[in-house]
Design brief:
mainly beta; 48% strand; globular; 8-stranded antiparallel β-sheet; 15 strands
Length: 229
Amino acid sequence: MGRLCKLVKFVGSSTGPLVGQDGYDSYHELSDWGGDALKVGKSVGLGALGRWVDNGVEHFKQVDKTHWNLLKDGGDTSEFEVRYEGWDVAGVKADVTTHYQISVGDPSTLVTVTSSTPMDNLVTGLVKHDNVNYIEKRSEHWTMIATYGKQNVLGDEWDLGLALFVKNSQIAEQFEGPHDYLFKFVPQTSYEYGFFATWQGHPEQPQTQQEFEAFMEQKLQRLDASAGH
């Protein structure tokens, strides 16, 4: 969900258009509507797309048009998509659509990406913070990277666990950038990956790193099982 998907602790309904308008960092402070718990900075955040140019990630800065569409709301799943027309990086344009799906009882977001042209520098990744544990796990069909620890900027002591999983067949390179742990995709026109976040403040989510890693392994098992269908 990219830099679109920031980790929000509590969700309000009526103040959305006003969030962050009273100061640059105000949305990182707990308010009536909630708060953004994750500091992103120049990184891709959790599962955003970018393009790797000159040892850095270029975000969706130069785009002709952006469209957002809610496809399904309610029931067991919800889905929406974002379409970027004319995403221009270093003179190379592409139309990119990102489709997001969430399901009841699962903190994961599944992402399907389609592009008008194959790109050899398309990346996704996970923000890199100091003094936070890095975790990596692999299965037959997927690679999952994660961080766990004190990366919650809302002022409480709860740990955040952030994870990103990408199909092995779609990974051209896995590497570390200045601000992120990154995957570069194989040049093609469609991709599938996902991410999730867990927070100790949620009573039904992992409360320790050991429980978080166990959840990672269970998720990989389910992903591998679904790959055969």
